[in-house]
Amino acid sequence: MAQKTTDHHTIRDWAEAKGGKPAAVDRTHSDDDVGIIRIMFPDAPNSEHEALDEISWDAFFEEFEKKNLALLYEEDSMFSKMVSRDSDD
User: Fold this and answer.
1) Is 43 inside a domain boundary?
2) Domain for residue 49, yes or no?
3) Whether the predicted model's global pTM rises above the 0.70 cut
4) Is residue 73 within 8 Å of 57, Cβ to Cβ?
């Protein structure tokens, strides 16, 4: 069952425990715009991390707050999805 959180500590701990790193979608990322953020899992099978640029956790959470996002995730898997804090997901 997926859980939804906005807690930075929870997000970082969950991601790092699974080898996750903060990232931005390459085609949306530039020096002056972080773009679309994701959590990438470079060691996961079928990972598409080649299309992502690793960024700092500070840059990740700055964009996370700016876009009013929440993380939908499953504790025991690598499933995660960025959603609006206002969504019913």
Assistant:
1) yes
2) yes
3) yes
4) no
